[in-house]
Amino acid sequence: MLLENLGKVLSDPIYIVAIVFAAVGIALALIAKRVTMLVRKTKDVKADDKLLIMLKIAGLALILFAFVLLMIGGLSKLA
User: Fold this and answer.
1) CA-to-CA distance for 70 and 30, rounded, in angstroms?
2) Is residue 62 assigned to a domain?
3) Which of 10, 61, 74, 78 yields a CA-CA distance of 20 to 30 A from 20?
4) In this structure, is residue 78 part of a structural domain?
């Protein structure tokens, strides 16, 4: 019964999109330092580097957007 409900939820397109956005956001936040080192062509990246901060903010924004999509999907099931 639980697996049937989980299958129905995960087959809903809004949940699939939310999972993809969350995965991309987490990946972007995790590789932000490496991308910054690659772009700047240095081994040391300062914590206040604008590119590093922007990449982490973009990753956080994607995670937040995924959370909002999950909330919208959950609220649409209630109505």
Assistant:
1) 22
2) yes
3) 78
4) no
Nearest Cα neighbor of 26 from 52, 1, 61 is: 61
Q: Decide if 9 is inside a domain.
A: no
| Six-digit token string for 74 | 């959950």
Q: What is the pTM of this model?
A: 0.85
- Tell whether the model's pLDDT for residue 7 goes beyond 90: no
Q: Report the SS3 class of residue 16.
A: helix
pLDDT score at 67: 97
Q: Which residues contact 33 (CB under 8 A, 6 or more apart)?
A: 45, 52
More confidently predicted of 39 and 9: 39
Q: What distance in Å separates the CA atoms of residue 50 and residue 1, rounded to the nearest whole number? A: 49
